[in-house]
Amino acid sequence: xxxxxxxxxxxxxxRINRLKTKVWINGTQVKGNISEHPAFSGVMKSQAALYEMxxxxxxxxxxxxxxxxxGERIGTSFxxxxxxxxxxxxxxMIQTWAxxxxxxxxxxxxxxxxxxxxxxxxxxxxxxxxPQYPENLRTFxxxxxxxDLSFTHTFxxxxxxxxxxxxxxxxxxxxARIVDKTSEGLVIKGARxxxxxxxxxxxxxxxxxxxxxxxxxxxxxxxxxxxxxxxxFICRESFAYDASNFNHPLGSRFEEMDSVVVxxxxxxxxxxxxxxxxxxxxxxxxxxxxxxxxVQHQIVSRQVVKxxxxxxxxxxxxxxxxxxxxxxxxxxxxxIIIAVENHKALLMASEMGAKLDxxxxxxxxxxPLSVAVLQFPKLYPRFTEILQLLGASGLVTxxxxxxxxxxxxxxxxxYLQAANENAESRIKLFRLAWDISMSAFGSRQxxxxxxxxxxxxxxxxxxxxxxxxxxLTEEVKKQFGI
Amino acid sequence: xxxxxxxxxxxxxxRINRLKTKVWINGTQVKGNISEHPAFSGVMKSQAALYEMxxxxxxxxxxxxxxxxxGERIGTSFxxxxxxxxxxxxxxMIQTWAxxxxxxxxxxxxxxxxxxxxxxxxxxxxxxxxPQYPENLRTFxxxxxxxDLSFTHTFxxxxxxxxxxxxxxxxxxxxARIVDKTSEGLVIKGARxxxxxxxxxxxxxxxxxxxxxxxxxxxxxxxxxxxxxxxxFICRESFAYDASNFNHPLGSRFEEMDSVVVxxxxxxxxxxxxxxxxxxxxxxxxxxxxxxxxVQHQIVSRQVVKxxxxxxxxxxxxxxxxxxxxxxxxxxxxxIIIAVENHKALLMASEMGAKLDxxxxxxxxxxPLSVAVLQFPKLYPRFTEILQLLGASGLVTxxxxxxxxxxxxxxxxxYLQAANENAESRIKLFRLAWDISMSAFGSRQxxxxxxxxxxxxxxxxxxxxxxxxxxLTEEVKKQFGI
Amino acid sequence: xxxxxxxxxxxxxxRINRLKTKVWINGTQVKGNISEHPAFSGVMKSQAALYEMxxxxxxxxxxxxxxxxxGERIGTSFxxxxxxxxxxxxxxMIQTWAxxxxxxxxxxxxxxxxxxxxxxxxxxxxxxxxPQYPENLRTFxxxxxxxDLSFTHTFxxxxxxxxxxxxxxxxxxxxARIVDKTSEGLVIKGARxxxxxxxxxxxxxxxxxxxxxxxxxxxxxxxxxxxxxxxxFICRESFAYDASNFNHPLGSRFEEMDSVVVxxxxxxxxxxxxxxxxxxxxxxxxxxxxxxxxVQHQIVSRQVVKxxxxxxxxxxxxxxxxxxxxxxxxxxxxxIIIAVENHKALLMASEMGAKLDxxxxxxxxxxPLSVAVLQFPKLYPRFTEILQLLGASGLVTxxxxxxxxxxxxxxxxxYLQAANENAESRIKLFRLAWDISMSAFGSRQxxxxxxxxxxxxxxxxxxxxxxxxxxLTEEVKKQFGI
Amino acid sequence: xxxxxxxxxxxxxxRINRLKTKVWINGTQVKGNISEHPAFSGVMKSQAALYEMxxxxxxxxxxxxxxxxxGERIGTSFxxxxxxxxxxxxxxMIQTWAxxxxxxxxxxxxxxxxxxxxxxxxxxxxxxxxPQYPENLRTFxxxxxxxDLSFTHTFxxxxxxxxxxxxxxxxxxxxARIVDKTSEGLVIKGARxxxxxxxxxxxxxxxxxxxxxxxxxxxxxxxxxxxxxxxxFICRESFAYDASNFNHPLGSRFEEMDSVVVxxxxxxxxxxxxxxxxxxxxxxxxxxxxxxxxVQHQIVSRQVVKxxxxxxxxxxxxxxxxxxxxxxxxxxxxxIIIAVENHKALLMASEMGAKLDxxxxxxxxxxPLSVAVLQFPKLYPRFTEILQLLGASGLVTxxxxxxxxxxxxxxxxxYLQAANENAESRIKLFRLAWDISMSAFGSRQxxxxxxxxxxxxxxxxxxxxxxxxxxLTEEVKKQFGI
Lengths: 482, 482, 482, 482
Prior knowledge:
4 copies of one chain form a homotetramer.
Chain A: H1 9-19, E1 23-25, E2 28-29, H2 41-53, H3 60-63, E3 64-66, E4 73-75, H4 84-100, H5 110-121, H6 132-147, E5 151-154, E6 177-181, E7 185-192, E8 203-207, E9 220-225, E10 231-235, H7 251-254, E11 259-269, E12 273-276, H8 279-287, H9 291-321, H10 327-352, E13 355-356, E14 362-363, H11 366-391, H12 401-404, H13 409-415, H14 423-437, H15 440-450, H16 456-466, H17 470-479
Parallel strand pairs in A: 1-10, 5-8
Antiparallel strand pairs in A: 1-2, 3-4, 6-7, 7-11, 8-9, 9-12, 10-11, 13-14
Helix pairs in contact in A: 1-2, 4-9, 5-6, 5-9, 9-10, 9-11, 9-14, 10-11, 11-14, 11-15, 11-16, 14-15
């Protein structure tokens, strides 16, 4: 028995390299160690550094907790909270990781770990399918936390036809579906979208959550190793255009990659199946558990850090070129401050209003979190707009690292100095602002936040239906005799 | 010694009637009992009902507290908080009053009581002017809470010239200033603006807070009885156009009136003077005390109730005419929900982050409150816009109480019924929505919220300067080597 | 034969008074001359003044045209345009009337005159119902223009249930429908909404335009005199609270009143019937004629004047209290300038792109007009918001006319003076701004503009479907090989 | 004498290659033919194609005009308009070029050609400096149009310190200034920002236009060849990351590059000097000539094409994935339609309101153009936001050209097909949308439009001061007796 179940960075990288997952990018299959491929080396290094923090003596207490069953130290993001203190510990741990990535890794391990924990905590919901299914889920959760596995997941069907009336025919399979069940397991064929970090995680979790509406062949939930036979990850163009941390300070480190996942008659072993052909179970697993408050608590914790990061960068621009006197500049900075304070308050309020759910899990109040998750898709793009408006021409007159070591470096030091920074610091700052708000990496971050927890139109509808305002309306009716 | 210092409704009305304050409206001076004048009878009745709640056996514990010195029960809004529990008690009390007025009385007594408490708690600030000044303030606070006095105040100079370069000459006095100091006291001449409830309170507090910039003759703070010799309140047109609670459900009850206050060589006795010709003291009293967090805590508590009230009315419109299915309707309701949840969370966060100030007062965290107070001026007008968009033609086809008791009542019952309400309930609801969003009373409420705590442009500047983001910028500089 | 068919003001007032139309307000039926009733006297005087302009020697050429058939002079708003010059003449005439009312009379006679002209010009559309129907419409148009009749109309069903699935049962009639056809004519029972100026016009035009979806009993179009047996107008509360032109400069003049129209088995003579139980004809009359471009041309012409009026008032506030130096003030004024310039340009563009329709009518380009009509509902409310933001406290510290003639007038002249105006001018200006943006009259104007040509959501859908962008998409496909 | 003065594509490329201008990029000086350098080859090819259109028999009449003096055919963008027909011809020519570049080349030759024409047309303004200066400008304009020269220009000082109080010391030169005047010419030292296309044009125009405030050493205007001794162009990182027209359909073609221009004691020959140490002349040249209406007419003509291009791409996304039924989708498309129609109308209105200026140049009405130029910086970023909101996940699951020719092409054809397009067309479309709204190239376009004609805050101030609304305010004062 290891004393520490949590992975360190090297273990993570070695495990992923050993998998030899089938990953295609720009017409070629990745060969050799994926951690050395230019499209993945930056993000894998950053992810490894996160795992490494679990071993940092100063952070260990926060980043891990002691397993009640094995006594080993487990990553805190797997911790099922049973008290408000647990929620606080989770928040602090999540924000510590988020700070290390400037909030730019939406799929840092805590995201899926939280999901898995939240679902396993309410595995009883799967009971009606037969006792093996909740057990499969609980067993897998234990296994995952003790091995500190990493995950990707897919949550949408290919965007072939988004019309509300569209149903896919059986003959022309696009969206991944159950095509057979054998003694070995389920057989899955078709594609699923948007596996972020697809190809650089131990496992892939696949479920029906997020699908618009579906029939039984689409009602499933399972997890399988990324290198399962028949599984293929097809990547988009990498936005890690430049490996220099100076030139592309974010893209070179945090470009997580997104991929289409193709299932070519993939067999999912029965012990890894959590939901099978049961629409109700597939829905309930997400809607009746504390999945939504717990995962949104993780999301908002990260978003707060990301928002504060942008606030800092915006303020640094203001300081650097000395534009703090202008009313419109103050107003823009205040816009971010206002957003940060609201977001922080909603997070706090969710913890203050937390209650034990029926399985004994301490679930944060879902209302402030749903509101936070609904408003961030409008706030974050506005933040990047503010960076553009403050940085202005400074964002398109930034030389590269090579320029600063070339014969023209004297010109740069003279002509690109700033009121309150030398040219090198100023260039670094503007490159950072550019990589948040204007690079292909940055724009993908913006798009990602727009849709992080689903289409905002659907989130709005959900809030409308879930938010209890009956007491308020009754009070008004009584007060005014209506 | 009374066992209860707090006023009841009758005491309040009798006291005000006895004052015979000089109040002018529509070219005529109010004669006789002001509580019977059509412009004031509605709001005085509502205010009396608030005081009466202090005697309601079910509410007494909440609405009052026991004086440590006299053992009497004092109105809770005078309570100087020394613990987070005190802040909670204050919030609940404030919101109980706010619910009784649908948040429509911005000058319900708790507002100025809180101000007076907050200033008196930090009276030491006035020490440098001489020991009598802090003592004057503390004595007056004690007197006010034990008599449960009501207040108006004035916070802006006449809007003659808002140019930043404008200074008033000594020869042509407009803004009220100190023109003399005699053995009796200060002599004040000139005008001040916007005494809401001017003429129907025991006293008027006058200070320099809120003035753009000022010189010594404008640096003062004092309180005097409303009927002081030389004092005159000039009212605007009353928006209590109709005394029927059916026709104008809000205007008939909560029209507080605004007035210009004219000082015609008014003598302020020395024992009522808190600041005199001392710009620094005048500023510090507001900026160095816990005035801002404590008063903003009162304001936001009320705003939350008002926001929830509008949410309820909006939802009732949706229910009544059955428009809940439309995406744009859901989105509009969610806009209000989002605002309500943010506002509630900011209020909670201010209490969670409360700290004792140097005089032992438990001051809420000012940041979330400043943000709340800064955003409400944009939110509330949008709420009224949403009511208009949902109510549409229904808001301009509403008959009166008299119509429902006339020969055409049959037509009304038939043709103005709603999907989920009878005609009378529907008419009441739409009249309520109209009185929030479209009547002269309602529009004045909207304007009031736009400027409640001052010009939003100045609030933005204040937030920009007060909000600490140095830690954040330093972290980013370190992380990215800037 | 008169040489002038156009009415003068006295003729209009006398005709309306003679009708003795059944008008109910605040539980009482109007008796005696309606032009002397406080709810109607202001607007009827203003309307009479419009008619009178047709006789003003300086304006006569513009305000009227010579009938080809009778040689009489007819009001220009009845002119069927057959050239771009005709469109220009129509625009100038419409704007001349609009200037006289500050754009505040949405139902000045030109609005319905334009409608009637546009429908009659395409009366052939009704041919399939039988030759008498187009003839009825053409004959009525001739009669109307030669008598210079005034009209109200109703365009929506009572707001009982706005759900998309709601159908009214036959047993419980709410929306006005055909209940019988006799030798005398159609028999109509039920109610219709929002007859603005209902009760103070010669006739009422009733049609199915604007109904969401309907069945045959609701498919009709006709015009009948306001005093037809069985017809009743039920008014809302009058917002002409004060007859003083000083105190309520707009409400005292232009409060048009809105009413519910009740049809109690009203008989519509056959010669006045244009559409009967024919859904296609009812729709085509509006969608296949040049109704939309011609009426929108009238609407936008008026809106331009109204927008310019608000711009002027906003600028006058800026001048009066000397706030023009502040960037946020400049930005707000520029917001209105931008809106004005766009609106004017769209109107110009519609004339530049005008084409003859198949009946020889010169129809303006509908696209710029539909865009203008779709954006004004967002612009106008913003204008009123800007007035509130600029006027601030000045909008709730305005005395009345009586105050200026009372013993306190000296105080007012001293304390309410402005940087660039004396107190009286300043009070007049702020009363005007208040009556645009804050009075019950003003708010009703705002609501009216929000929904002037129908629910903006439906207008958006219409634009989406009507706007041709096929050429653009084909070009891009070709250029980029898609 | 050539019959055609206008360049063809080859001439342009050969001329630029021959210049051997000093261009630095990523730490290295460009050697060899710049037209073959990966950072410049795409855009130079596109620019050459524009010149080539001047020889297209179908377009020649439009793209060129016959010189009155030489009889040669000159590029239409050099045409000084003297009639409304000339303005129309100019607009059509500009839009023809703009269509060829999807409006993505802000510095297509017509932009600077228009500037030069507009300034030369009003060269008399320079008369007070001495007769040689207007003559220099006119001579240079003749030379430029007859040789069909290409230009870059620089319009801002380095962003060292944007504080309003900042003045640069003489000892530490940053912003380019006159350091000496010799018999040869002016001597210039320092830097200027944002020469778009810097290094790939024949000449560079340098003037004080756009500087915030300046002193005499900064008051100059001249044009010199790009390869003048002492001149250096320092480029930012190239956003032409991928030369494939399939992968980066816009970036590979239209990446214009921006550069810092360094003047190392550059000598400007006297015959090329238009303004020297004369602040008034420097300002008047831009503010008193018809520069603003003429250049804005060029800008808005291009913006209309760009807006229509985005509208088409947005609509193609809607068609491709069949989302046209959703109200929020319709609303987003209509947002673009509304913007397009307003922009087109403003352009039309500027031509309708054109007037001859005092030098006989037909100047479009400046008001609608200033409004258009002021609103585009808000509209265009919103367009790209709409593309992101419509394209959603489809924008980050797009494979590359290589993928479509690889072993996995079958998967792509199956799983990335769309409702109304095959996989290849759909991928091309989404790549195009991505390159508008999300690539580094696209974001730079967005930034560029935000600041195209200067800081929007300053444009707002200018509009506030230039827009005549005196007539409107006087009318209101008269009408309401203010």
